[in-house]
Amino acid sequence: MPDKFTLGKNERLKHRKIIDQVFNEGKSITLFPLKIHYMFCQTLTEPLQAGFTVSSRQFKKAVDRNRIRRLLREAYRLQKVSLQETLQKNQQQLALFVIYIGKELPEFQLISDKTKLVLNKLTGIANENASPPS
Predict the structure, then answer these.
(1) Which residues contact 21 (CB under 8 A, 6 or more apart)?
(2) Any idea of the CA torsion for 118, 33, 58, 61, to the nearest 10 degrees?
(3) What is the per-residue pLDDT across 25-50, written as a single tens digit (0 to 9) for each?
């Protein structure tokens, strides 16, 4: 069994087709300073795949964008376990894309708190979408 608190290559959302589908057909949750686009689908290799981005219009320096992305990935990596277990239990697959929409460099605690709230909301949505046992 793989470690719980990892974020490997196969857990990252990379396929352009799926990313476009998430933005075009998926739903979104905004919890400032994060905006999450998500979609339940059956074409993923893992039950949960995520992508992360920061606007280059807001943050001109690549150093700042990379730092924020690193914070987003770390907060997600530490808190994704409950959502992952729910998806596996319900036999669902979820693709999500996290966008940082704030205008200033965040502290890790803020990102961590907001990520936890968003992932709890997604866990609730996954439980609602679960098909009842027959």
Answers:
(1) 39, 41, 95
(2) -70
(3) 999 999 999 999 999 998 888 899 99
Rounded distance between C-alpha atoms, residue 48 and residue 80, angstroms: 9
Per the structure, the complete domain to which residue 51 belongs is given by 10-125
Q: What are residue 54's DSSP bridge partners?
A: 100
Residue 41 to residue 54: CA distance in whole angstroms:
24
Q: What is the CATH number of the domain that holds 80?
A: 3.30.230.10
Answer whether residue 91 is part of any domain.
yes
The model's pTM is 0.91
Q: Is residue 4 part of a domain?
A: no
* Residue 5 placed within a domain: no
Domain count, the chain: 1
3-state secondary structure of 64: helix
Per-residue pLDDT band at 132 (split at 50, 70, 90): low
